[in-house]
Amino acid sequence: MTSTQAVPSDVLLQSQNIDREGEPTGYRLFEDGRFERRRSGGPWEPRDSLSPVELTKVRQAIIASGLLAAAGHHRAPSQPDDATHRELWVRSGDALVYLNIDSGCAVPAEQALMTAIVDVLR
């Protein structure tokens, strides 16, 4: 499974929700702590950068979550091909891991990551 778009080479974490029309909303975090959000149909908009401590917390959470081993398409059996879904890119070292997660499908590693960093992502 491939992503619907290119991801900048310095992205640490990018998460998008894609609606039935293909419009993404989401956020992305860069290796240097820059943080951006995107509203449906809009461009990426800069937000406050993460502190070095917050960035370290995200990196540690990525490794601890087990997400790096969860790449691929996580399909909900009852979802049509045009169902809403989430796309998640996670970088660890030289590896960029891509997940495509159908709406209604739970991926424990993704949930562990989000729970660990919810307070960091404003």
CATH level-1 class: Alpha Beta
Number of domains: 1
Average pLDDT across residues? 87
CATH topology: Mago nashi protein
Query: What is the terminal-to-terminal distance?
Result: 30 Å
Q: Could you give the order of strands across the largest sheet? A: 4-3-2-1-6-7-5
Tally of contiguous helical segments: 2
Strand percentage lies at: 25-35%
Q: Which CATH architecture?
A: 2-Layer Sandwich
Question: In percent, how helical is the residue content?
Answer: 10-25%
Annotation, overall tally of beta strands: 7
H/E element order: EEEEHEEEH
| Shape estimate | globular
The stretches of 5 or more residues where confidence is low (pLDDT under 50) are none
User: Main beta sheet, described?
Assistant: 7 strands, mixed
Given helix and strand content, the structural type is: alpha+beta
Query: Would you identify the CATH H-level superfamily?
Result: Mago nashi
Describe this structure in words.
Strands 4-3-2-1-6-7-5 form a 7-stranded mixed beta sheet, covered by helices on one side. The chain has 122 residues and is of the alpha+beta class. The chain contains 2 helices and 7 strands; from the N terminus they run E-E-E-E-H-E-E-E-H. It has one domain (11-117): Mago nashi protein, CATH 3.30.1560. A hairpin with a 5-residue loop joins strand 1 and strand 2. The protein starts with 10 loop residues before the first strand and ends in a 5-residue tail after the last helix.
